[in-house]
Design a protein that fits this description.
The chain is mainly beta and 446 residues long. It has two helices and 34 strands. The strands form eight sheets. Strands 11, 13, 15, 17, 18 and 19 form a six-stranded mixed beta sheet that branches. Strands 2-9-8-4-6 form a five-stranded mixed beta sheet, with no helix packed on it. A five-stranded mixed beta sheet has the order 21-27-26-23-24, with no helix packed on it. Helix 1 packs across helix 2.
Length: 446
């Protein structure tokens, strides 16, 4: 090219001096070299390009290096600096052009949120991948790269009144690596989801919350891949029952007659844990009178408990509420109650007769003996009440209490007879009281 230019210049500059001619040729040669530097260098005809990538599965936010190896027909690498152009049908390549070094040119592919199969191609001049299309690499991106979706529920059940569980869908590609940025759709046949459509995070997991009071079947879908169904069950809660009956006789505890002697009523509770109940950790029976009893975990299914209640202190009734509280191993609890009503027995009135017997009056005084006789007050309208104590007042400012029905007292004597009123108050074992009185004359002693 330079020689042709030289010949042309000689024809253009006839008679020019050798110095001027040399300068002109130098200028033209530099122009030619500069023009050559600005023209891209491409692979010769019949060269082949082979494109590769370290991974062909990417998340929607992923990236990977793309490498093109360019060989001339002679199986030798193309000249260093040969330009290779890269294109992608999804995402982007950056840079779009790269120059070879020892036959290799590389660029970076970025998914940029795409989902599908990206075709990344490399060309240089008329060089390509031949009939085998070695200059093309296919990258599977995002949802298209999903191989498996694994769904888990934590916990795997809700309580008997319902509750919430966390659903976690792990999305993994065919290379066993988690896929970030993939959209996951959750489905359930019962309850509600905090979010139905969730994008996986950097760990390849998508999370949502299911709230349900019924058994629910849930699944998760990413791309065309659906997880196996997961069943969220409703746990059985603690189930217990309680019944009450008089310890003797028949009937229920709606009207249990107290014993006339002790004014107490003894009842029998039957506590049952049926087969359908969850496993209990504890059960406690509160009798409603300030006392309670631990029943363990009722592993045997049922238990009987006796308890004595105090009767009313007047002619009415006295009610108690017995409550059974049960807690299972999942900390679910349940309670049931029954009412116990204690009535007084049918009693006759108590009558007290007080008799007095005097001794001989002396200067030191006169002794009197007293006897209190109690009739009536028995249960069922017959018999006599059992007396617990006798409280005596002797009419002279003194008193005494005995457990028996007799006592004696010495009165001071004087020159005149003195009248005294003596009383006795009896207290029955059930707390009832009755009073008897009598008048005496203390003899004079001159």
């Amino acid at each position: 090219m330079v020689s042709r230019m030289f010949k042309q210049k000689r024809s253009v500059l006839p008679g020019a001096s050798p110095v001027r001619l040399a300068s002109a040729l130098l200028v033209m040669a530099m122009a030619v070299i500069g023009a050559c530097d600005k023209v891209p260098l491409f692979a010769p005809t019949s060269s082949t390009i082979t494109v590769s990538a370290p991974t062909r599965l990417l998340s929607s936010t992923g990236s990977t290096e793309i490498t093109a190896f360019v060989l001339e027909q002679s199986e030798t690498p193309v000249q260093n600096g040969t330009t290779v152009r890269f294109t992608a049908t999804l995402g982007r390549v950056e840079p779009a052009e790269a120059q070879t070094l020892n036959g290799l040119a590389s660029t970076m592919f970025f998914a940029d949120g795409a989902s599908g199969v990206a075709e990344v191609r490399a060309i240089s001049g008329s060089a390509g991948g031949g009939a085998d299309a070695t200059n093309v690499v296919l990258l599977t991106i995002g949802a298209a790269a999903v191989d498996t979706v694994t769904l888990r529920a934590n916990p795997g059940s809700v309580g008997p009144s319902g509750g919430s569980v966390q659903l976690s869908a792990a999305v993994v590609g065919g290379n066993g690596q988690p896929l970030a940025g993939v959209g996951v759709t959750f489905n359930t046949d019962q309850g509600t989801l905090s979010a139905s459509n969730v994008t996986t995070g950097a760990d390849g997991e998508a999370l949502t919350t299911l709230t349900t009071s019924q058994q629910a079947i849930v699944s998760a879908r990413a791309g065309v891949t659906t997880s196996s169904n997961v069943t969220v069950t409703v746990r059985a809660g603690p189930i217990v029952s309680i019944t009450c009956a008089p310890a003797s006789g028949t009937g229920n505890c709606a009207a249990v007659q107290a014993d006339a002697t002790s004014n107490t009523a003894t009842v029998l509770f039957t506590i049952t844990k049926p087969t359908g109940s969850s496993t209990l950790r504890t059960a406690t029976l509160d009798f409603g009178d300030g006392t309670s009893q631990s029943l363990g975990n009722l592993a045997g299914g049922s238990i009987t408990v006796t308890h004595a209640y105090s009767g009313p202190s007047d002619p009415g009734t006295r009610a108690y509420t017995a409550t059974l509280q049960a807690t299972d191993i999942n900390n679910e609890s349940a309670s049931v109650s029954t009412t116990v009503i204690v009535t007084r027995p049918t009693l006759t009135p108590m009558n007290v007769t007080l008799t007095a017997t005097s001794g001989t009056a002396t200067a030191s005084g006169q002794s009197w003996a007293f006897t209190a006789t109690v009739t009536g007050g028995g249960e069922g309208g017959t018999g006599n009440a059992t007396i617990q104590s006798y409280a005596w007042t002797f009419g002279d400012g003194t008193s005494a209490t005995t457990s028996g029905n007799t006592t004696s007292h010495v009165y001071e004597t004087s020159a005149t007879e003195t009248q005294r009123t003596v009383t006795v108050t009896v207290t029955a074992q059930d707390g009832r009281t009755a009073t008897g009185r009598t008048e005496i004359l203390v003899s004079k002693f001159p």
